[in-house]
Amino acid sequence: xxxxxxxxxxxxxxxxxxxxxxxxxxxxxxxxxxxxxxxxxxxxxxxxxxxxxxxxxxxxxxxxxxxxxxxxxxxxxxxxxxxxxxxxxxxxxxxxxxxxxxxxxxxxxxxxxxxxxxxxxxxxxxxxxxxxxxxxxxxxxxxxxxxxxxxxxxxxxxxxxxxxxxxxxxxxxxxxxxxxxxxxxxxxxxxxxxxxxxxxxxxxxxxxxxxxxxxxxxxxxxxxxxxxxxxxxxxxxxxxxxxxxxxxxxxxxxxxxxxxxxxxxxxxxxxxxxxxxxxxxxxxxxxxxxxxxxxxxxxxxxxxxxxxxxxxxxxxxxxxxxxxxxxxxxxxxxxxxxxxxxxxxxxxxxxxxxxxxxxxxxxxxxxxxxxxxxxxxxxxxxxxxxxxxxxxxxxxxxxxxxxxxxxxxxxxxxxxxxxxxxxxxxxxxxxxxxxxxxxxxxxxxxxx
Length: 448
Ligand SMILES: [Zn+2]
Description:
two-stranded antiparallel ribbon
């Protein structure tokens, strides 16, 4: 619940205050509070990470910036009961020339006309059932949602790649298409509620849709994400939307990486991908962090001189890391970056005593705080060669080049954001913005 909506509930609030004082006196609650561990917050007691100065001349290594973002909204399509809803997704890929972006006035209010002049775009729409909509030919609501997701992945969604499907990129990732990699991906479940089969397999050179050996119904490669498990009666498909958005964003990223990796690898080294949010696969999609880390490791030595050719940064705009960075900002030096090692994260940001390093089964980038020359503080994640708890600057992929770009892209339009992300946030929220084939042309130009 947002702060604003809470404010409209005064009587309820007052009632809960009374309950609070009773609760605090309760011996079970007191015992609970004694068991709580909270992060250290005394600024003088924090042992700050070592700062590393950034060589801003590295910026010239990056020529193009690609930002990727998506959003969705649910629309009710009848006013009767039971309520019926569809979710509309809007995903965008923007390409910028770095030098053109540097010239943008930082505080400018960007309108759609500016957007047209500034960048080249690919806008990808998707509609899926959100509540109480049965798709033709499907046995129930969940089946319809699964089928629509599969059909989207199996369509030529991106105008930048008019003869390619997203599922090709997904397969490339799941089966490690850059190596001999995986031959088979097993599913130990059947997505139909009434079937107990645990033996479905997808093969490297096999089809995207297979038949369940037990119930004989269709199983899609995209069922790998177990979305059916969080589609339910009261909430419809709402639980999957965030994961699905993030999944598609990252598969769009993989699609571009795949294309250049196969056609002109060295070109990748001049591009910086900027993703809204951390470099991680959460929830239903978490399994993909593993092949993604393997892909990153592959790209780490894929350059002409065995150098890393992958430049990706995930930018966080909210959450405990952003709150922490804001809190300690006075203690940080300008134009320095700070690697938050596992010990630091546990002690001061996210309390945990597990043996595994932070994000061990979700992330493919490591957390860094960067304070720019202009004293802006950014929380980012950048790919690391190996996912260890205490990476050094040399373990990150081209970190100084990436930070140099960010130092020029700070945006006053939104808090904790940079221009490419602000622009794409704007783009995916503009419903009538025309799609374009310029990204396609750009890609062709850079290959031929
Ligand atoms: Zn089955």
